[in-house]
Amino acid sequence: MNKGELVKAVAERTKITLKEADAVISAVFDEIQDTVAGGEKVTLVGFGTFEARKRAEREGRNPKTNEKMIIPATVAPAFSAGKTFKEAVLTNNK
């Protein structure tokens, strides 16, 4: 499912226009992105948690030359699924 399909599904489920659904979904995504980029977590009970996770500096290898190199520390966005979400996925994929 892409964003357009999500907008259409939300519009049909909530009986609002496609334009209104797109505005709401875009606002939700923007707010999650801004909050996580600001260093805070976004927790949606039962669905999951969005957060920024720090990755430590580590040693890696260049796959072409097999030469050792240092991969610098970084911060990356992460998502942890909540219990209800995990159970729904497990139940529907048996």
From TrEMBL:
Query: Could you tell me which SMART domains the record lists for this protein?
Result: BHL
- Cross-referenced SUPFAM superfamilies: IHF-like DNA-binding proteins
Q: Which GO terms describe its cellular component?
A: cytosol
Q: Which domain of life is it from?
A: Bacteria
Q: Which InterPro entries match?
A: Hist_DNA-bd (IPR000119), Histone-like_DNA-bd_CS (IPR020816), IHF-like_DNA-bd_dom_sf (IPR010992)
* Record protein name field: DNA binding protein HU
Q: Which PANTHER family match?
A: DNA-BINDING PROTEIN HU, DNA-BINDING PROTEIN HU-BETA
Protein family according to the UniProt entry: Belongs to the bacterial histone-like protein family.
Q: Which gene encodes it?
A: hup
Q: What GO annotations for molecular function exist for this entry?
A: DNA binding; structural constituent of chromatin
Pfam families with a match to the protein in the record: Bac_DNA_binding (PF00216)
GO BP terms, alphabetized? chromosome condensation
Report keywords, A-Z. Answer: DNA condensation, DNA-binding
